[in-house]
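Colleagues,

Please find the record for the two-part complex below.
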Amino acid sequence: TQLLEQSPQFLSIQEGENLTVYCNSSSVFSSLQWYRQEPGEGPVLLVTVVTGGEVKKLKRLTFQFGDARKDSSLHITAAQPGDTGLYLCAGARTNAGKSTFGDGTTLTVKP
Amino acid sequence: NAGVTQTPKFQVLKTGQSMTLQCAQDMNHNSMYWYRQDPGMGLRLIYYSASEGTTDKGEVPNGYNVSRLNKREFSLRLESAAPSQTSVYFCASSRGLSYNEQFFGPGTRLTVL
């Protein structure tokens, strides 16, 4: 079984702080996705990383794929209350037909 | 484009009752998925369909059946509901290529009494 472990499980910070969440596995993935889920809604795709060492930026969010394509991180700069939600990572392998999801990091940003 | 739609949005069942959750996508995606999400947990894959005409079990298939009716539609059936099946159910679709980027519906909140 391919497992994706996310840490921390919960994170509560003040508006304006920086944070990093992690997604780790012992398995190699061909790509990794990050999703954000707000209460009462389905997850929404934020980004896909494909190449080992790849860094992608989405406004104040920076995503990095590990060199060995086994792990990833999400860094948020100057967090805002609108960043509050459940952040999920998911790894995919070529032709597997499905993805492996982590259990998520629940982020709360207080005004 | 509506993306991925799910019906119903809410449902309450009694133990032993049956029901079918409907899912449809209008993005011409090849692959479709059913997940359940319990409080404080991530998504657990119930069944998936990598392409029209095929279905495969995920992590937690017991107590469920699926039908890939056509390329657009993928239904999930509970034959005899149990309280342990109380959960939020999400349907998703993807092009099914290597990246497997998934697009999710709004979910069905199911309570089994």
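The mean pLDDT of chain A is 93.

Comments are welcome before we finalize the supplementary table.
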